Amino acid sequence: MNRADGREAERRAETHDLDVAIVGGGIAGLVTAHRLNSRPRAGRPRSVCLFEASDRLGGQVQTEQRGDWLLESGPDAMVTAKGSAIDLCRALGLGDELVPPLGAATFSVVRNRRLHPLPAGFRTIAPTEPWPLLQSRLFSWPGKLRMLCEPWVSASAASTSDGAAEDETVEGFVVRRFGREVYDRVAEPVLGGLFVADATALSARRVLGPFVELELRNGSVLRGLRSVPATPVGAGRGSGNDAPAQLTLKRGLGSLIRRLADEIPASWVQLGCAAKRIERSREGGRWRIETASGTWRSREVVLACPAPHCAPLLHAAAPEVARALEAIRFASCVTVNLVYRRRDLTHLPNAFGFFVPRSESYRILAAAFASEKFPARASKGHVVVRTFLGGALDPGAVDLDDATLSGNSHDDLAQLIGAVHPPLSTHVHRFRNAMPQFDVGHLSRVADLRSAIAGQQGLHVVGSGMGGYGLPDCVTSGEAAAEAISRSQRRTAAPSPLASPSVSMS
Q1: 164 lies in the same domain as 268
Q2: Is 59 helix (H, G, I), strand (E, B) or coil?
Q3: Lower CB density within 10 Å: C or N end of the chain?
Q4: Could you tell me which residue, 39 or 1, shows the higher pLDDT?
Q5: Are residues 175 and 44 in the same domain?
């Protein structure tokens, strides 16, 4: 063999051919791989590789069993209003593992350093039952009357050429429809906490879309809600709706990750293998992916990681897509699981958790009483509390050390729920640049991103990279990408020049 032949043989050994490369092993990437595996194509088996930079699959979904304590670091439930994640659990044989929350407790908000439960029937921003609202100590009498007068407030929402409402801030929408108190005391802490966001910048169309549509169609949110009382709107449990707003899995959402991983061929997965660069190959218009394990060529590339990680990969090959990805802002957040003896929490409320307005002097954004919300999260006599810190208005929190984050959480819990002794155990998890920020104009930015991607044959973006939030959005986007890839490969089912995947992926 001469020197030129040797160099060519070395190049072939280092460049592997694929049908599909998936970058990111979170829920969206795993669902994409699972769907591709469950839809085998005729003829040669599909060659797929999933590249995950860390040493584990699941992304933000992280469940740990620590003795008698089941700890969720990322999401802890799936909303029933969007059924894709729950349908996936059932399809994977996990239907019997689905469990609802314990009872019908709701959430509280902090007001003047005290916890106040949301009135019964309160749907995120809208009171649907007058009597509980009138009894609530969360609002002043003028504030209560302003809310109840919402049906007589003129509808001023303008619509775009396609009939959709023009975008405005959550603050503008809520104050206009229900008054300042609802925004300051409920919408700001609840929506700011849920999305770890600056609520003054949040897009009403993106995070309160059903309410915006109710105003557009009915001229009033409350009139619209009365016309469709069983429609689940917003984040909370709707009054008169017996179906649970959320479901989870008995052994935590990590069960879903494990089942998906079991359903995917082990040879498809590479852990600890970050993608470094993606380019267009000169050979057949394929994509060329540089990774820690070598260089790969693929007909299709699925980016299943947050936009801040996707954009740098595409600067050379698809600059328009990279710019569109960079236009979607992300924030970092921290979760802290704290385990207490029940007797050490002297003011534990009958609630699933609480949200904290930024006007209050606390570091945490919210807290969830995990063991009060779902079964089998803690042994008898113990309580698991999960706090949330960071977000758009506290970006430095993610860089604090574990002791400081745990200490800040305990100090706030000591004041708010009477934590008289330090926790028995604390567990800190950081999520850097992982939470999409739904600022005004977000839907337009996502539309621009979709348009840019459409001009790049064989490129797909799923999950939070597309602004998806929560498991259902990520599941839906992963399934859609797999279906698009399957359709494309059916159209080009002629014999492929790609070599069969004989390369070890381990």
Answers
A1: no
A2: coil
A3: N
A4: 39
A5: no
